[in-house]
Design goal:
2 domains; single chain; Alpha-Beta Plaits; alpha+beta; 25% strand; four-stranded antiparallel sheet
């Protein structure tokens, strides 16, 4: 649905990032666009993977209500350089509590899948879901 020039600007940026092109002139020729089109849109267009990396993610974690359970989750986040923006914990009901965290994924030292696996491996964690992001 995007105009073709937007896609080609992303292609040119990728050529530059990967080293497939050494200069902007070379990248735009490979992508099939003009240098002026590249410079016009280069700062406004990013591939989805780049946008996702900088995005705020919201996680929901259902946990057993045990002393130190939340602390263990937060330790994993800290060890992996996850920037926590907000934490909201519900009152425990039937021995379980819901924790919702909003995080910035841009500085994480591991992938979201790896982070999820580490958190889900904790004995107190019953379920982890990505709500947004």
């Amino acid at each position: 649905m995007l105009p073709e020039v937007f896609i080609k600007v992303c292609e040119a940026k990728e050529y530059l990032e990967t080293g497939a092109a050494d200069t902007v002139a070379e990248a735009v020729v490979k992508a099939g666009i003009s240098r002026s089109a590249f410079y016009k849109y280069k700062d406004a267009i990013s591939p989805f993977r780049d946008i996702k990396r900088d995005q705020v993610l919201t996680l929901s974690i259902l946990m057993h209500d045990r002393p130190g359970a939340l602390s263990a989750v937060l330790a994993i986040f800290a060890d992996n350089k996850v920037n926590i923006l907000t934490i909201n914990q519900s009152i425990s009901a039937n021995g379980a509590a819901m924790v919702t965290l909003s995080i910035m994924a841009d500085a994480m030292s591991i992938s979201l899948d790896e982070l999820r696996a580490q958190v889900e491996a904790l004995p107190a964690v019953m379920r982890l879901e990505l709500l947004a992001g």
